[in-house]
Amino acid sequence: MTLVxxxxxxxxxxxxxxxxxxxxxxxxxxxxxxxxxxxxKGLLAGLRSRVLEESVAVEIVIxxxxxxxxxxxxxxxxxxxxxxxxxxxPAWHDVDSSARVEFDRDAAFxxxxxxxxxxxRNLRAPTTSDAAPPxxxxxxxxxxxxxxxxxxxxxxxxxxxxxxxxxxxNVSSKRVYSGRGGSASEAAP
Length: 189
Known about the structure:
This protein has one helix and nine strands, in the order H-E-E-E-E-E-E-E-E-E. The chain is of the alpha+beta class. It has one domain: minor pseudopilin epsh domain (minor pseudopilin epsh fold).
């Protein structure tokens, strides 16, 4: 084998690595985002089930452009919004999380964080929403919830949008942005 052949073979290996490594890293980032979204959706579903079983309202407080969230028991006076029975879709507005109300730490189920670099963003709630503080998901014992939309976002891997339906408390999610300049994907996670 000559030196030219060796350099040529080494060049082919370097070129192949330059193509494969970013793809593998992108796949790992995407898997992390989807796992985070699946875990959070499972948390919401589990809390909703617990609320229905124990007849105690629960709140999940999330903050715009932050990775932390808190799970607390709702104020015992919390009642489902009168608009929950309405068939008309509410008008939506962006949530100003600076107006968020602080909760008693003694009542907290716990404070949690999303993985490093992953945040909540694009919080939107209907203008006719109940008295729940901005950025709050509240599940009621009658099966209803505060309607809200938000995204779990990773600047490298993209975003997963969540939608909580007020009338049913149903939680749905879908991949809306694939990250790294990719196009939106409508596939459900």
